[in-house]
Design brief:
Elements: E1 6-10, H1 18-31, E2 35-38, H2 55-64, E3 70-73, E4 76-77, H3 83-96, E5 103-106, H4 111-116, H5 124-141, E6 147-150, E7 155-159, E8 171-174, H6 178-187, E9 190-194, H7 201-204, E10 212-221, H8 228-239, E11 248-250, H9 252-264, E12 267-274, H10 280-294
Parallel strand pairs: 1-2, 1-12, 2-3, 4-5, 5-8, 8-9, 9-10, 10-11, 10-12
Antiparallel strand pairs: 6-7
Length: 295
């Protein structure tokens, strides 16, 4: 457990302009973040009246404007894309980014959204079964060999795609349900766990195979020399509806101690969602006060 943890910025592509998103991506890169993850929705949850950009297009945009960051999502919704389309998109992003793309996929965290847009009426177990089939198909297509597949949701006959990925594309899957954990075991490079479910880590660890552990956390960072009460009050106004379970609040010393404790539990990567919408100054201060100290 001596290796330094990875920090990835969770940056939902809503409320911000394309230039604002690029500014934050570049600030994260300069601050020492290892990656960046967008969200994938047809309308932003709890903020349907806010503007939002499409997930794969924005990932391409940010990959073209950064040099080192791993680009991904938390997470793509399986129901939105046919696996042949998804496989092609992932390989294209892999090549365009120079091997900096990771495929993060889930069965759909907002069932009401799927119904609203007429995408799917499927219940959780059915969506989890489709997720498994999608990953079976995608990973076979990535080999470049002909794929014949007869599944419940997907069927293919001698389907083949080129080019193949520049490297084995890492797969990120989140969730703690039994069916999802079986998919993690069979397909995931990374298993992502929300911080409010950290108590499930030890029970689930034997079920995830060789997958490495990442943690997604909402963070209210108080840089040195700033007004803690003011920062926390603003964060509560913006994110109080989410509650405080799993949210990290504090300055550099407090957050370093928190991440070190998680690291001792086996967490190797952190996806951080900043309650000030990742202001570039905040990212720079976090890099200096937290990431540099844990490097």
């Amino acid at each position: 457990m001596g290796d330094a943890p990875e920090f990835h910025l969770f940056l939902p592509q809503m409320r911000l302009s394309p230039d604002g998103l690029v500014d934050r991506a570049r600030a994260a890169e300069a601050a020492g973040f290892a990656g960046l993850a967008l969200m994938d929705h047809l309308a932003p949850p709890q903020a349907e009246d806010r503007p939002m950009f499409e997930a794969m297009t924005m990932a391409t945009w940010l990959a073209a404007r950064t040099e080192r960051l791993t680009i991904g999502h938390l997470v793509l919704c399986d129901s939105f894309r046919h696996p042949a389309v998804l496989a092609r998109q992932a390989v294209t992003l892999d090549h365009l980014s120079g091997g900096r793309y990771e495929l993060a996929l889930g069965s759909g965290s907002t069932p009401a959204e799927l119904r609203t847009f007429g995408v799917s009426e499927a219940k959780g177990p059915e969506r989890a079964a489709r997720l498994r089939e999608t990953l079976d198909v995608v990973t076979q297509l990535w080999t470049g060999e002909p794929v014949t597949f007869e599944g419940r949701f997907h069927q293919m006959t001698a389907a083949r795609q080129w080019p193949t990925p520049t490297r084995p594309i890492p797969v990120v899957i989140g969730g703690t349900g039994p069916a999802t954990l079986q998919v993690v075991r069979d397909h995931a490079t990374w298993w992502n766990l929300p911080a409010h479910h950290i108590d499930r880590l030890e029970a689930c660890r034997p079920l995830i195979g060789a997958a490495r552990v990442s943690l997604q956390q909402l963070v209210t960072f108080v840089p040195a020399g700033t007004d803690r009460a003011e920062i926390v009050e603003l964060a509560d106004r913006r994110f109080g509806w989410m509650g405080h379970t799993g949210r990290a609040v504090g300055g550099g010393d407090e957050l370093v101690a928190s991440f070190e404790a998680y690291r001792r539990q086996g967490v190797e990567r952190f996806y951080l969602w900043f309650t000030d919408f990742a202001h570039p100054d905040t990212l720079g201060a976090f890099g200096a006060e937290v990431i540099a100290r844990l490097a």
